[in-house]
Amino acid sequence: MTLSLTTPRPLIAGNWKMFGLETSLDEARAVAAAVASKPPAARVALCPPATLLHRMSEAMAGEGVLVGGQDCHQSPSGAHTGDVSATMLADAGARLVILGHSERRAAHGESDALVSAKVEAALAAGLEPIVCCGETLAQRDAGQAQAVVTGMARASLPASLAGQDFAVAYEPVWAIGTGRTPTVADIAAIHAALRAVLIERFGQHGATVPILYGGSVKPDNAREILATPEVGGALVGGASLKAADFLAIIDAA
Ligand code: PGA
Fold first, then answer.
1. Distance between CA 46 and CA 195 in Å, rounded?
2. Which residues sit with their C-beta closer than 6 Å to ligand 1?
3. Active site residue 191
4. How far away, in angstroms, is 79 Cα from ligand 1 center?
5. In this structure, CATH architecture of domain 36-61+69-75+83-252
6. How far is CA 186 from CA 4, 40, 232, in A?
7. Which of the listed residues 98, 217, 249 should we mutate to test ligand 1's pocket, taking the one with most ligand atoms within 8 A of CB?
8. Predicted structure pTM score
């Protein structure tokens, strides 16, 4: 990936989802050690379950690996049993937060409006949001992929993102955890449409916001995906759990 002064560094973010116990921090330490010994072209982040955030942040301190949350509540505090606020994520050492992941949208009924409110909360807490959008297989088969994804992006990105650090992730639901990926041409088409939305919403700043691809990114397809026009990084699920696989993807950026 060639970088210019106007192109921010790509971002490779690992989403551990609901995987990981204290012993898994060894994988994170192995990623940090490799990143420290050979600084990559990309910025690198790991988003563990909330239970590991604080310990991972301490282990990664000064190591060149950012730590992020996987979701946050839209309020800074309150009577919300079981929820975690953006302020709490930041307090535990997070610098970023994934918002609007399709697993949250599907299993927790998160709407675009709620995702947008969570983005506002993340910004207020000083976190860099990674805002996800993607179509289902039925929507793609019906020829609606581009309309669905751009509609989700428009409604999930609040105006307050203007001038702030954030990323958008295109994550086709049918490619997540399935080993299936869209063609490079399909990824390029959706990313170009998302770029147009970002420019329409945020002007020149929108031209520089990284658009990540997520969905079955693996060591053997990362290079091709990351070389696709308008792909500014990757959001990696399964392959981020093993340091060797994640490092191979980081190397491909
Ligand atoms: P996957 O997950 O890489 O395991 O397909 C991607 C994601 O859900 O972000």
1. 25
2. 15, 171, 176-177, 214-217, 235-239
3. no
4. 31
5. Alpha-Beta Barrel (3.20)
6. 25, 27, 15
7. 217
8. 0.96
CA-nearest residue, atom 6 of ligand 1: 237
- Tokens encoding 26: 């060894």
Active-site hit among 27, 103, 135, 171: 171
* 101 tagged catalytic: yes
Measured CA to CA, the distance from residue 141 to residue 9 in angstroms comes to 34
Q: Spell out the per-residue pLDDT of the chain, length 253, in tens.
A: 444 456 789 999 999 999 999 999 999 999 999 999 999 999 999 999 999 999 999 999 888 999 999 999 999 999 999 999 999 999 999 999 999 999 999 999 999 999 999 999 999 999 999 999 999 999 999 999 999 999 999 999 999 999 999 999 999 999 999 999 999 999 999 999 999 999 999 999 999 999 999 999 999 999 999 999 999 999 999 999 999 999 999 999 9
Catalytic: which of 27, 73, 101, 103? 101
**CB-CB contact of 95 with 62 (8 Å):** no
